[in-house]
Design goal:
By secondary structure, this protein is α/β, with parallel strands linked by helices. It folds into 4 domains: about 60 residues, no CATH class; about 160 residues, GAF domain (Beta-Lactamase, 2-Layer Sandwich); about 160 residues, Histidine kinase-like ATPase, C-terminal domain (Heat Shock Protein 90); about 130 residues, Rossmann fold (3-Layer(aba) Sandwich). The chain is about 50% helix and about 20% strand. The protein contains 21 helices and 18 strands. Strands 3-2-1-6-5-4 form a 6-stranded antiparallel sheet. A hairpin with a 2-residue loop joins strand 1 and strand 2. Helix 3 packs parallel to helix 9, helix 9 crosses helix 16 and helix 10 crosses helix 11. The longest helix is centred in the middle third of the chain and has 69 residues. The chain is elongated. The relative contact order is 0.07.
Length: about 600
């Protein structure tokens, strides 16, 4: 033994025996060398264990700097415990999931084989004496056969080697003050009690594991939140792109739709009428696609307007049609035409429906055979409820969910998808949107029997309804009116002129400034103003007109091809002025004009 080691050994002996003089008393005769080696080995073993424990704790904390998954961190914690706790040869880390405990890490056992096994939480917790965070057990066979289901019992007998375990040391792990799981260390050599030093080391590792897991969860949630923010920014950018594209497309599309309607009023040959009708159908299809995109991109507050749910569902399915065909998913629809209208946020509700359809699609991808999705809607009266309710069901014949997963699907950040395929916020956001509309959302599922997502919403009608929009009086061409159209798009101006003249007088202004100059000298029955123009925009035109000619404001009808802009909706809500969305037909233009005239009578 070198001099430095000898001095360290003397210091250790002094602490252990109270004095170094024992060396002189006992180190005589043949026992000197043996006693010397035995004491030195004991000292060196204790020092090595302490160093190993310290190094292992440092290694655990270094894991936090990496992007390891929580299960990887749990495995590292378990391996550290088996390495550092005297008497431990094998082990497992069992985590609580609702009403059961499940394996999340093993050492010396086959984790994949044991993962399906589950331990009833109430009975498992009884293995830990009340108020204690650790315990030791030597008999499992009787407990397992009493409380485990047949499959879990078979898995433990086959892959858990319970017949080899002589004694186990259990230590509780707490994360943020809540019980998280149990560190189980097994001794396969003898039935001897784990010494106090082993219990203390295991409990220390369990305590440190709680801190490491808490930090790992915080970092994981932070990463998911950052991912969600990035996705939100992408959606916001997509919304802005859709807004600009819709505005540019809707102007020429207004002309296409409008002129096909005007042409069909002429005396055309059957062949020409059929050709024009095909043009109209194609334009209607384009309008439907654009409006589907606008519904998806819309950012409105709840309670914005009436929502036709059958139409909304068909719009969402139209958006997903290509993806569903690629995944070979057959969609069945049961959507009655007489569903009552809802009063709510069409954009937010479309987000809910899109999420439910996308989740069903993701589940069906796991099916090797036939893939079916059924979307149903029906109305019903609920006892003690003031209004009728509409129920929507999205069913799939996918693999279904376990009760544990089913109980957690609305929890924020909970997801069964891979880390890069979902942040676990979709259904929790749906829950909040549905609750804000006074409804409820829930799921029904069984493993192997598919999943049904159900959405129930109250029928709340608007306080002010647009009356008489379909009668003959509001669809005929107005007569004898003086109108001013403020729009920079030549196609829209020409359509409005051809739709209203010669029965009416029409003046045109290409900018807001030009319109204000005209209004200084002339009065009009109707002012049609585009919301989105170069120079002076529609909202600025309104404010100046309100200050200079407040009575003329009551004759103002806005037109716009950008119906998904949040600022535009806020402005229209505050002014209570009507909006005619592009693309519109001559009949829709007539209806809007008649409404304003009625309001002036």
């Amino acid at each position: 033994m070198n001099r430095m080691r000898y001095n360290e050994f003397v210091a250790y002996s002094t602490l252990r025996y109270g004095s170094a003089s024992f060396l002189c008393t006992y180190m005589k005769g043949d026992n000197v060398a043996r006693l010397h080696r035995k004491a030195y080995r004991r000292w060196r073993s204790s020092l090595q264990q302490t160093q190993q424990l310290a190094q292992s704790l440092v290694a655990l904390y270094q894991l936090l700097r990496t992007t390891q998954s929580l299960d990887t961190i749990l495995q590292a914690i378990l391996e550290t415990a088996v390495r550092c706790v005297p008497g431990a040869q094998r082990g497992s880390l069992i985590v609580r999931e609702g009403e059961y405990f499940r394996y999340h890490a093993t050492y010396g056992y086959n984790l994949e084989k044991l993962k399906p096994a589950r331990f009833p939480a109430e009975q498992f917790l009884r293995l830990l004496p009340e108020g204690q965070r650790r315990s030791q057990n030597i008999r499992y066979e009787e407990w397992n056969s009493t409380y485990l289901d047949d499959e879990s019992y078979r898995l433990l007998r086959t892959y858990g080697d319970i017949h080899l375990i002589r004694r186990s040391l259990l230590s509780s792990i707490f994360v943020s003050g809540a019980f998280f799981g149990t560190l189980v260390l097994d001794n396969l050599h003898n039935y001897a009690t784990f010494p106090p030093a082993s219990e203390a080391t295991a409990l220390l590792l369990a305590e440190q594991a709680g801190v490491v897991i808490e930090h790992a969860q915080l970092l994981d949630n932070l990463r998911r939140t950052n991912s969600l923010l990035a996705e939100t920014e992408k959606l916001a950018s997509l919304g802005r792109l859709i807004s600009g594209v819709a505005h540019e497309i809707n102007n020429p599309l207004t002309a296409v739709l409008g002129y096909t309607d005007l042409l069909q009023l002429e005396d055309l040959s059957p062949e020409a009428f059929s050709a024009v009708d095909q043009i109209r159908l194609g334009a209607e299809r384009m309008r439907s696609v654009i409006r589907n995109l606008q519904v998806f991109a819309r950012q409105q507050r709840p309670g914005h307007g009436e929502v036709h749910f059958s139409l909304l569902i068909n719009q969402i399915l139209a958006l997903k049609q290509a993806d569903l065909l690629i995944d070979q998913i057959t969609v069945e629809r049961e959507l009655p035409l007489d569903l009552p209208m809802l009063w709510g946020d069409a954009g937010a509700l479309s987000q809910v429906l899109l999420n439910l359809v996308s989740n069903a699609q993701h589940a069906l991808r796991l099916n090797a055979g036939e893939r079916r999705m059924r979307v149903q809607a029906w109305k019903s009266a609920v006892e003690d409820a003031p209004n009728e309710r509409i129920t929507i069901a999205v069913r799939d014949n996918g693999p279904g969910m376990t009760p544990e997963v089913l109980n957690r699907i609305f929890e924020p950040f909970f997801t069964t998808k891979p880390q890069d395929q979902g942040a676990g916020l979709g259904l929790s956001m749906c829950y909040g949107i549905v609750a804000a509309h006074g409804g409820r959302i829930w799921a029904e599922s069984e493993v192997g029997a598919g999943t049904t997502m159900l959405l129930e919403l109250p029928v709340q009608h608007a306080t002010e309804r647009q009356a008489g929009l379909g009668d003959e009086e509001t669809t005929r061409r107005p007569d004898g009116l003086r109108l001013l159209i403020v729009d920079d798009d030549e196609l829209v101006v020409r359509l409005v002129r051809d739709a209203l003249m010669p029965q009416n007088q029409l003046s045109v202004a290409r900018t807001g400034h030009a319109a204000l100059n005209i209004l200084d000298h002339e009065a009009f029955d109707i002012i049609l103003c585009d919301l989105k123009m170069p120079g002076m925009r529609g909202n600025e035109f309104y404010r100046i007109l309100h200050d200079t000619s407040p009575k003329m404001v009551e004759r103002l009808l806005f037109i716009s091809g950008d119906t998904s802009n949040l600022g535009s909706h806020d402005f229209l809500d505050s002014t209570q002025r009507p909006l005619l969305a592009k693309p519109f037909t001559p009949t829709e233009l007539y209806q809007a004009i008649h409404q304003i005239n009625r309001a002036q009578q």
